[in-house]
Amino acid sequence: TGSQKTNDDTLKSPDFFNKYGDKVAWEWVSDNRHLVEKMGWPTYHRVIGKHGDVSYERNESTEGAIKQVTGRAGLLSVADQDKVYNDLLSRYEHRIKWEKERGTYDLETEFMKLDAKVEDKYLFRKGSGGNTPFGKHTVREVSIVNNMRKPLTKDQVEALIDHHLGDMKPDQLQTELTHQVNENHEKVVEERRASREETINKLKQELEELENAPVDAENAEACKKVKRQKARLTALIDEKERAMGEYLKDLERTKDILTTSIGYWLTGQVVKVPVPGSLQSNLGFFCGISVDHSKDNPFTLGNVTFLFAVADHRSLVEVTLFGEGLRDLRNIYAESKDITTEEITQATENWNAMIKEASMSRVKRHI
Question: Could you list the residue ranges forming a coiled coil in this record (predicted)?
Answer without folding.
Answer: 186-246
